[in-house]
Structure formats: C-alpha cells, structure tokens
Amino acid sequence: MSNATTQTWSNWSGHVRAEPQLIADELSDLARTAPGPVRVAGAGHSFTPLVKSEGTILSMERFEGLVSHDSERHQARVRAGTRLGPLMHILQGIGQGLPNMGDIDRQAIGGALGTATHGSGPTLGAYHTQLETVQIVDGQGRLHDFNRAGDLDMVHAMGVALGAFGILTEVTMNNVPTYRLRRRKSVLPIADMLRDFETMMAAHRSAEFYYIPFSGYAQFIASDLSDAATTTRPTEDDEAGLATLRRLRTALAWLPSLRRRLILGAIAKLPAEDYVQDWLNVYASDRQTKFNEMEYHLPFEEGPKALAEIIELTEKRFAEVYFPMEVRTVALDEFWLSPFYNRLTCSIAIHHDAASDPRRFMRAAEPIFRRYGGRPHWGKMHSLKAADLKKLYPRWDDAMAVRRDIDPENRFVSPYMAGLFGIEP
C-alpha cells in the first residue's frame, strides 16, 4: 500500500485528474478507516469523474484472476480487478465465453459492470446481465455476498452501482460455451443505413455501424455464430484510417467539398472483410489514439432520427470532428440503474480527439440526445444531475434506498457522486 500525499491519478484520456491523499491497493479495513471519500479505480477508462477523490483511490490491480468455475453451468467467479483482455483467455481456457463484448478490452470487469458497459445486439445484454453473484465490502468494512436465487433485488440494485454501493471484490458470471463468430464488414450510404436501420440491426446476432463524418457513408459490421473453420483475421487499419481522417480535417476543414471527395476516395479503398474466428479474437480492437467520448442510450426506434440530427449538427458546426460515430443496439434488462432498464436500446457514441477540448461539441450534441429520451452512459461525458436522472429511471428511489443502507455514512460519495445521486454533503 502507498500512502504518499502528492500522488496524481488520471483516467485513460487524461481528461480527468485527481490528487488523492492515498492511492491504495489493499482492502483490509480501508473501507472504514481510509481518508474519505473512498473511490475505486479499475482501468481508468471512464470519461466522467467517477473515480476522482481528494481522499482515497482504491486500486484493484492486484484483485485479479479466476476464483472458481462451474463447467456444467458455464459460470466463472472472478475478482473484480480482472481486465477483460486476460479474462477472455481465462474463460477460453475453461471452455467458456462472454456472450458479447464491446470493442475495447482494457477495462476491469468491475468497472465495466459498474458503468453498464456493453456490446451490440438486440438480444444481447450488457455485461451486468451476466451476474449471478455479487460480493462487496460495505461502508463499514463488512463483507456481503448476494446471489440471484435469494437476493435478486440486491443484484438488480447493485449490478450497475458506479462504485457507490460498496467495494466490488468478486462476481460470478453466467457465461456460454466457447463459440466462433463470422464477422463481416461493408460500407453503405448512411441514408440507406438510416432507412433500413431496424431491419439491418435485427438481421444479425450482433450488428453495429460507424458513421464517418463528412463522408455520407457508414461502415457496417455484422457478427453471427459459425461452425466453420477459423480463417485469418485481417490486419486492423483503424489507426491508419483515423490518421488519414485527422490529416484531411486539418488540411481541408475550410474546403468541405474537397474533404468529402478525398474521404470517399479513402473509403472506396477499404476492403470488405469476411472471416471466422473464436469469439475472443473478434470483438476487441486496438485503440491507440486517445479520445473523449459521450454516449447516450435511446429508445431503439428513436435512434435513426437522433443520429440524423447529430450528423447535421456536426457537419454544419464542428468541422474539427473526425472520429467516426458508433451506433449499437442493446437488449433490455431489469437492473435498476441500467440505461437499458425495460427498453430495447439504440446507443450512439460521439468522440473527440483527446488533444482538443471536447466540451463545446458535447454540449451542443447533448440536448439532441435528451430530446429523444436518452439516458447517458455512466462512464462517458454528460452533464446530468440527480433531478434529471430520477426522471429517467423508474426504480431510482429504490436504488438510492439500497445505497443508503449499504453506505449510511457516505464513505463512497465524492462531490461528483453527491451531485449525481442528490446526496446532501
């Protein structure tokens, strides 16, 4: 454990920074005695100040690995600090697989669960929907184990907890037998994608697309189960593509027609992809260019209309934006603070280069998301506070009551969390 008073913590993009009194990596009685507020850090891949604290930041880097597994039920109990990348290989080694994933595998499973991180697919839920058991240390240092069989309300209350209900230490995940996916990529006019949105997104086990600003085209990605032999996964060119879009933005922001033609020329050279691989070799991509991100989760049927407005806003007012916009679907669930609570969802994510201030772009886009009933991704940039959020979550008051019972002294409540949850200091 380190107790230096001048340490600095920052998230992945560098947008959020903190200077806590203590950065700790041992639980012991920290929950009860460490300088408050106590916040828990996973991989630092959230873009909101969830971890920021003037008190203690608890590192979960040493709380990693497989605890036990059940081959018949396809369940695995893992420590909350386990990163998704290593977790994939752990599960593959015991014949299991995550049913779905996002495109980044750097997060700790505890952070991914706590912020409702997700992949894409109209029948596939976010990571927290796999929870069978949850183990936490509460604000008074006591250890609790909750399971679906006897504590379903507690699992639903704490499955998406933002690190404010206790220190998540271990979870049991309901997985599936290991499997293979056939993944295909193609380029389509965005007008066609928006027109056929419902059909296109529902036609595959998992489907998503990226709209390339100032191009009029989207890259559509579909994944389906396959029994075929594996084939070679093509070399990723996402980073090279981003570099090209950044150069065209920088050189031709003042000449949009030429910028569009050159982007279209680059898109035309993109090869179509069609390959089969084991699940763990399909989902994740290597993201090296740092960015800041806003993502809102909207009723499924509102997605195309909201995206069309976001595209118009971007291309009329924000020539500096070059990152593709990511569009996914997520199945509904019953977790009280899940953005997917009781509704099939269309998720739209917008990005801004971490080297530039993203706030002007995000502030302009957010009212569009909100007008269509969007709920923000808990780990990505947004401006909502408790009064706004309470209107979006039918079980809000129930979740807050559970939080008070678990942490009556507000040990896990930072100023940011107080504003988010409406807790008086």
Descriptive report:
By secondary structure, the protein is α+β, with helices and mostly antiparallel strands. The chain has two domains: about 65-175, Uridine Diphospho-n-acetylenolpyruvylglucosamine Reductase, domain 3, CATH 3.30.465.10; about 180-375, Vanillyl-alcohol Oxidase, Chain A, domain 3. The protein is about 30% helix and about 25% strand. It is built from 13 helices and 20 strands. The protein has an eight-stranded antiparallel beta sheet, sandwiched between helices. Strands 6-7-11-9-10 form a five-stranded antiparallel beta sheet. It has a three-stranded parallel beta sheet with strand order 3-5-4, with no helix packed on it. The longest helix is centred in the middle third of the chain and has 15 residues, at about 240-250. It is globular, with a radius of gyration of 21 Å. The model is unreliable at about 1-5 (pLDDT under 50).
Order of the strands making up the biggest sheet: 16-13-15-14-18-19-17-20
Total strand count, please? 20
Approximately what portion of the residues adopt beta-strand conformation? 25-35%
Low-confidence stretches: 1-6
From the N-terminal CA to the C-terminal CA, the straight-line distance is 29 Å
Which CATH class of the largest domain is shown? Alpha Beta
What count of helical segments does DSSP give? 13
CATH homologous superfamily label of the largest domain: FAD-linked oxidases, C-terminal domain
> Which structural category do the helix and sheet elements fall into?
alpha+beta
Number of domains: 2
In the CATH classification, which architecture of the largest domain applies?
3-Layer(aba) Sandwich
Largest sheet: 8 strands, antiparallel
Mean pLDDT: 91
Helix content: 25-40%
What characteristic shape results from the CA principal axes? globular
Rg (C-alpha, Å): 21 Å
**CATH topological fold name of the largest domain:** Vanillyl-alcohol Oxidase, Chain A, domain 3
